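Standup notes, structure subgroup. Blocker cleared on the nicotinamide-adenine-dinucleotide input:
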Amino acid sequence: MKNRTVTITISALIMLFAIVVSGCKKSCDNGKNYQIKDNVIVFDEPQRIEGQTSMLGFAAEPIEKVRIGFIGVGMRGYDAVYRMTFIDGVEVVALCDLVQEKVEQVQKEILEAKGLPRAAEYIGEMAYQQLCERDDIDLVYICTNWQTHVPMAVYAMQHGKHVAVEVPAATTIEECWQLVDVSEQTHKHCMMLENCCYDFFEMTALNMAKQGLFGEVIHAEGAYIHNLEPYWHEYQNNWRLEFNQKYGGDVYATHGLGPICQVLDIHRGDRMEYLVSMTTPSYNGKKIAKEMMGTEEFANGDMTTTMIQTAKGKTILIEHDVYTYRPYNRLYQLTGTEGFANKYPIEGFTLMDKNLPEGFLAEGQHLNVHGFVPKDVRDKVMEEYLHPIAKEIEDKAKEVGGHGGMDFIMDYRLIYCLQNGLPLDEDVYDAAEWSCIGDLTRASIENHGMPVKMPDFTRGDWNKVDGYKHAMK
Ligand SMILES: NC(=O)c1ccc[n+]([C@@H]2O[C@H](COP(=O)([O-])OP(=O)(O)OC[C@H]3O[C@@H](n4cnc5c(N)ncnc54)[C@H](O)[C@@H]3O)[C@@H](O)[C@H]2O)c1
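Run returned:
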């Protein structure tokens, strides 16, 4: 009898073990925090903890003089400091980097050259913490390698600072939730610096979309297609190639996705619900990694293609290719029920006569809905519908520069909104939604293109704001 009980207990334990193992097979096997339910990959979504409140539409108290601490003054950070010195009411208080010479270069070539005071210096891997602990900084501006963004942003917010962080803001779903949660806990802004939302064509097309020139926008395409061969050697300690060597998926989706999400009112009336992703093997990436890192392994496929469907059924195509030999391309394409916009490789629109203001077209002129509008109409459209923000700051933006001026418009808007106590153009939910693509596409690719449910970082509030708008005083 005793023996039988022991046998039954052992069998029960084995069964229980089998159930537990099969139940969490995918999540446990590869250490991922997702499960597969009805052939859909579903990531865990943490509950909002007590005392934490939504940051949708959040506006902080106006800050007359915005005092900035920069972390990371490599290629991107150097330019950011430079641009900020052209904005009134900004003070560069502190600079932090791993490399003393880079900080010195900014002090000499930018601050001293413009007759501005030298900034405080912080050198070393953890020195950013001292910068964040200062009590005379309002905004921490982060331009470091991807994996350091979230620890730095979190530390800054927890020490009472607003945060602006380069793209992508985060590299995993857990990190995306961390940004959202800490921003909701501290009530500090966390803006991802998605500069492509501020390019002239994108801003014009956004303005046109909001005025109904394309009818209902039902499909959009975006990409980051940029052969990085000339640049791989430039990143500090080879961080970028090392990341791509380790991780598959669309690891740099935000440039293509950001401007499209603004047109589609993502978490302002619609939300991205599912994605599927596929990738090619690595050919050129592997070759570069062999040359630079002496490894035969390379996780990131040369060309990664992702389709996203929104709650309203709209579709988005996103591509990533930083390896092959092709012209630079961010796609930026909008397909509407009554019109079309296309930025790369040819800037153009397809429009209907009826959607243009009276007298816009020349006497007797009619548009062909099977082709692009003629050049004279396109030029007139670009002038007439240039976004009011871009119009206001166009000359200065082109003079200061930064990808043709869009980087300056981004910084100008960030400071304008902080100075006037307005919600920022890109909130923490945008940062999470646009950055989570890397992890989600990896999961889809690992499972032969299986659909992945996209997390709702607003936790149910995605339909509460009526359309995307820039805040104005
Ligand atoms: N929006 C855009 O158009 C655009 C363009 C290029 C790069 N970026 C983004 O900007 C960021 C930086 O890229 P980059 O091209 O300037 O790379 P980079 O390697 O030139 O610069 C990164 C800098 O961060 C510093 N750094 C790293 N760890 C640090 C730490 N713990 N404390 C302080 N400093 C630290 C490095 O020393 C280096 O100077 C990345 O997130 C990248 O994706 C955005």
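Discussed briefly. The first helix runs from residue 2 to 23.
Next: hand off to the docking folks.
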